## 1
Amino acid sequence: MREILVSEVMTRDPFTVKPDTNLLECARKMVRKRTGSLLLVKNKKFYGIITTKDILWALIKKTKEDLTEIRAIDIAPKKNFIIKPNNTIDEALGKMKTSGFERLPVILNKEIVGLITIKDILNFHPEIYPELEEFAQIKEEEEKLKRIEEKKEKTNLEGICEECGQQNLLQRFNGMLVCESCVSSK
């Protein structure tokens, strides 16, 4: 099977705003266009990307300021991950996984030519969905196991301390069941 290129899957006319557009206008455009992100573009040059999460963050962190006073470029992430149209969708997925972003601007000769998202890839290549679902399940299970281990570490049991030999409430410490006085003495 031939490699599928980003240019075959990407959205060719993504929604854009100028970098100095205020957040209220960005939010209005996102609602009107039913999109979760806007590319910050001026004269076809890419400056960043703003998402609904960024606007919500600004609402919470900068409540004293009016949304018309905050520019999109001021809250857009400073680090941007981009991809070229001749890259493969496997390379795009890899970049999305390592960066943690679900969308990548597509740049050619320093100009914006499109946007590729997880949704674009899944619509074109749905057979990778089980892999993404499995990846999410593995991550969720790892988090559950970590919480269980943390809870085990904090659980107090009654028994004989493996350090001093006294009967007391015990807790796990460095893989041993020890009393509180032995934990505090270390």
## 2
Amino acid sequence: MSRFFKLLLGMSILYGISNGQSLYELKGSIVDENKMSLPGASVFLYPINKGTTTDLQGKFVINKLQEGTYKIEVSFMGYQTLADTITISEDTMFNAQLNISVMSLNEVVVSDNYIETRKKKNR
């Protein structure tokens, strides 16, 4: 009976060691070119497809990350998307500054023939 108990104990210890990978945390903040926080910015990690959005202070946290190298993508409407590579081997801070995206829109022309349409209806 004691051999069985020792074997079971040894197997559970080996199982715990082999599956005992540490999980880490990635946190940081996202600001604009004036150092103003960007609430609601998207922060996404590839290839695990895990992400979050920033809070009212522009801060974010992504938990339960395994050690490794990830591609991080930060985006916010009206700003250029930032793509970078980070290596997680411990709890990590990532702060980013986004630049305004210059957008040019085509001119919109609004025309109306209300008076002429009204005249035709009145005839």
